[in-house]
Amino acid sequence: MAEDARKDDGLPLHTALYLEPTYWNDRFTKEDHYEWFKDYTHFRHLILANVKPTDKVLEVGCGNSQMGMEMYKDGITQIIRTDLSPVAVKRMEEKSDALGYKEIRHQVADMLNLPYEDGTFDVVIEKGTVDVLFVDSGDPWNPSPDVVSRVEGMLKETHRVLTSDGIFISIAFGQPHFRRPFFEVKGLTWTMKWDTFGDSFHYFFYKLRKGTKDEKQGPSDPLPLQENSKVTFNLEHEYMDNEDYLLHSTLADDE
Ligand SMILES: C[S@@+](CC[C@H](N)C(=O)[O-])C[C@H]1O[C@@H](n2cnc3c(N)ncnc32)[C@H](O)[C@@H]1O
To answer: Does residue 255 fall inside a structural domain?
Structure first.
């Protein structure tokens, strides 16, 4: 399926394919390196401000990104890099071993069902992985039940495997007004803070510190539609110089 589902330029015919393990396996078999959003140099200062060298780190959806290896070079060595794609995991393990990064471990893991005990990690980090759960979400103000259930499942799992004051770092395209209803839902004890990085286009570096909010606070469900706003999806290829645009949604206020 995956081969004929890709266009000549390697992009998927339908963004829903980003949810298919076969799409990613096929892609990682052929592609050596693709960095979603920006590479590490653009947000390194934010990593160093929020992650300590002694922290136990879980990276979810590592793909073939260099991020975990760059963190290792910065002295953050206790990293488990995971992805749903066994191809990605095997290739990243080979690369890491060849470079002698012995402490980095690699595992196949589904972020919706993480194979780790409660309270295992000081940091869970992802870049562009949560965004994948939002593809085909329709109206981002009123996401479909499937999207809500996927994203909530991922966030609950992340929250569960963090230590009592651990931090979830989400490097994402999705804007704060769309993410807050998910991140701050009842049952999760973190509070959403963020920085931005990037030049002409801004990406978001979300920081969610567990234990900073009462679990009873927050909406039970993602917030309802906001009035007087409409959302447009910008799918023009020339809009960006890579496929980030496929995950992009913009908010436009009605005049
Ligand atoms: C947009 S790519 C981002 C890759 C990488 N983090 C980066 O910054 O370049 C999304 C990644 O999420 C992985 N993925 C998709 N669904 C997943 C799931 N349920 N659990 C873990 N990883 C998943 C894909 O295999 C892919 O590597």
So the answer is: no
Q: Is the pLDDT of residue 255 over 90?
A: no
What is the residue-wise DSSP string for 14-65?
SGGGGG-HHHHHHHHHH-S---SSS-GGGTHHHHHHH--TT--EEEES-TT-
Q: Look at residue 241 and tell me if it is in a domain.
A: no
Q: Quick: pLDDT tens for 209-228.
A: 999 988 888 777 655 444 33
Rounded to 10 deg, the angle between the 21-30 and 86-98 helix axes is 30
Cα–Cα distance, 35 to 67 (Å, whole number): 9
Has residue 16 been placed in a domain?
A: yes
Q: 20 C-alpha vs ligand 1 centroid, how far in Å?
A: 10
Using one digit for the tens of pLDDT, what is the confidence trace for 155-205?
A: 999 999 999 999 999 999 888 988 998 999 889 999 999 999 988 778 999
CA 153–ligand 1 middle distance (angstroms) = 15
The residue ranking higher by pLDDT, 226 or 142, is: 142
- Which of 15, 70, 84, 171 for mutating ligand 1's site (highest number of atoms within 8 Å of CB)? 84
Domain hosting 41: range is 3-225
Is the Cβ–Cβ distance between 59 and 79 less than 8 Å? yes
